Amino acid sequence: MPRSRSWTLRSRVMAICAALGVLLVGLSVAAALIAADSNERIDVLTDKTGPMRTAGQSLDAAFVDQETGMRGYLLSGRTDNLSPYERGRAAEADLLDQIDRLNRTGRADAAVTAAIAQVRARAETWRAEVADPVIAAVRTGGPEAGQSLPAADGTAQFDAVRAAVGDLQDSISVVRNAAVSAAKNTGGALLALEITAAAAVLVFAVALMLLLDRLINRPVLVLARQIRAVAAGDYDRAIVGRGAPELAGLADDVDAMRRKIAAELREVQQARAQVDAKAAELTRSNRDLEQFAYVASHDLQEPLRKVASFCQLLQRRYQGQLDARADQYIAFAVDGADRMQRLINDLLAFSRIGRLTSGFKRVDLNHVLDIVRSQLSARSEDAEIVAADLPTVEGEEPLLTTLFVNLIGNSLKFRRPDVPPEVVVSAERSGDIWQITVRDNGIGIEPEFADKVFVIFQRLHPREAYEGTGIGLAIVKKIVEYHGGTIELDPSVAVGASFTITLPVIAPAEEEPAAEIASP
């Protein structure tokens, strides 16, 4: 079912980061403006008001030099005493120009401009009313002429000049104090902006953590609990996603996978139940068939023995007394009874494999081959049976003996004319299994019959050519499978036949030294 459209986790995080970025940019712009204003105030302090104050102090000294030079010239009449006056006038002009120029830098202060104009006006008044008349009188009439002038005193006019210089200094101090106060205010504003930025970052970080916890952390924990419940076996439990759309989509995908697995699991369980039922039915059928074969072969022994016995009696007593056809019929009956008895005995032996068991024990296959040689000694006078370094395996010695008797017996039976039989039994370990090979130099088996030779009562040759019931290799295969192994014919062998048997290796914890294995 499609979910309603909503903001994804990425879009929400990007929105928070964008809002934080906009706020920080705004704070940065404000901080830049305040910093620029602060720099301007500092420039006013360092490049404007400072030099203006210094120039103001020097200006007062320049006026004192002028007044001192005039007084010295008035008393002595000597021209060299006018040097301080001249230097003071030149310094006055330079200092007033400097203060005026500094004041016009940036925003000009009207009070300072007015104070400069007042200083200039009062200075001109003092020189016009006092200094210039006194100096002119001394130059023409000597000190007595200058001292006789009423303007020679001039104290009030000079005090007015110095008072104007003081007013100028006060105006400069006002400008300086205003710049200092503004610089302090901008510093406080910058600190406030920094605190605001830190608080904003903290608030946005907390908001982001809460958002991630609500949209990711808690939904992931809930999703993990649901998945663990499903993994524990509750396959019918629906997985519901919460939180961010991405996690909700992931939960939907996981739930779809759960539904698919649950459906497949139900199919597997149904198939397994059917297989178990078939296996139980097959086991019961095999057991019934084995029981039937055992009972049938066992119960047929007695009437068959009677038929065979009476046929043999007829053959011995009436042979030659009837015509040739009657003798032939009796011979057919005796041969059929014998063959039926052999078939029933082989079928009885086949049905007994796995039914009557004495339990698995350690069996040395070298000892088994010695028993096989003894049992086949009458048929292997000119044969060579080679076996060495065979392993010790878990199994039943009589069945393993029957296995090799049938295999090696076939090698001796299906020999090539005028060629002494050779049978080689070898073993090689491959991981947890033994690969045992039985190879001969007989007539061999065609590759297309590689699987048919293990079918019960399957014969590849006429009964007249080779004796036997065709059950030997079927018994061999059943014995091998009963011991947990496999057997197959190697069709690639050019001469003779080669069978490969696999048997499990004894587990290391169960192995014992070979010297402790007692030969039966």
Counted beta strands: 7
The helix/strand order is HHHHHHHEHEEHEEHEE
Terminal residue distance: 75 Å
Instruction: Tell me the overall shape.
Output: rod-shaped
Low-confidence regions: 1-5, 512-520
Number of spatially distinct domains: 3
Count of alpha/pi helices: 10
Arithmetic mean of pLDDT = 77
- How do the strands of the widest beta sheet line up side by side? 2-4-5-7-6
The portion of residues forming beta strands comes to 5-15%
Give a quick set of tags describing it.
Helix Hairpins; disordered N terminus; 10 helices; five-stranded mixed β-sheet; disordered C terminus; alpha+beta; Heat Shock Protein 90; 520 residues
